[in-house]
Known about the structure:
By secondary structure, the chain is α+β, with helices and mostly antiparallel strands. It contains 9 helices and 14 strands.
Amino acid sequence: xxxxxxxxxxxxxxxxxxxxxxxxxxxxxxxxxxxxxxxxxxxxxxxxxxxxxxxxxxxxxxxxxxxxxxxxxxxxxxxxxxxxxxxxxxxxxxxxxxxxxxxxxxxxxxxxxxxxxxxxxxxxxxxxxxxxxxxxxxxxxxxxxxxxxxxxxxxxxxxxxxxxxxxxxxxxxxxxxxxxxxxxxxxxxxxxxxxxxxxxxxxxxxxxxxxxxxxxxxxxxxxxxxxxxxxxxxxxxxxxxxxxxxxxxxxxxxxxxxxxxxxxxxxxxxxxxxxxxxxxxxxxxxxxxxxxxxxxxxxxxxxxxxxxxxx
Length: 311
């Protein structure tokens, strides 16, 4: 794992990874054009100066102008995109955990959170990238939570035939198709994320100035560990904030990651009530997550979104 501020040049993460981490932070900040970010190049600059394929990554004036999502009716579902991108030997449960990470980024982002139908049940359209006219066979949802319909056939030729040679072996691989346990986990973890988002207006601030004042990103800029995106929300002076402070982590690594945040040392951070409950869908934050107050050191389990609060 990466140790911030203690990396030899040979061990530094590639720029693509650093750029991806900055893009996640842009989304978490509601893509607000004037929000200042400590970017990977060591400069603090407004999101409008962060490049996204030749365009300003930050473009919104207020959080209400932004709708955040990780999948939509266009293109493949998130599960299908990950079928292309994740290593073939990724376990069924890890595929579900990666799906939850995507939903967590949406849940933690400033602005309007939009969740596409079935994202919480690992919905698949058998890799169809345009299912507008594909019928129920590719668009169906199983509300019994037994199947996500991955691998039920090659999607229609219209927008997919060029990729059939790539799709065929994936769709034939039964190990990619999730079982009921993975679907149930994703569904229940999604409900926990909704409970966390609903627990405090800090996750859905209505004013751009409030976002600039209350949201910051530890572990950003030069020397960051780009495998873990951390966000800190300050509830001071917000009457209905629910918590004095909130600190969330999104660890995309298949390994546990440890972050030392000296500014958090000595504080009485606890897991969010939803995640510390024995009924939490994902027990790993409670069982494997660690906070060492003396050093401000957090250990975040592999492929996990964890939320800590000061009550």
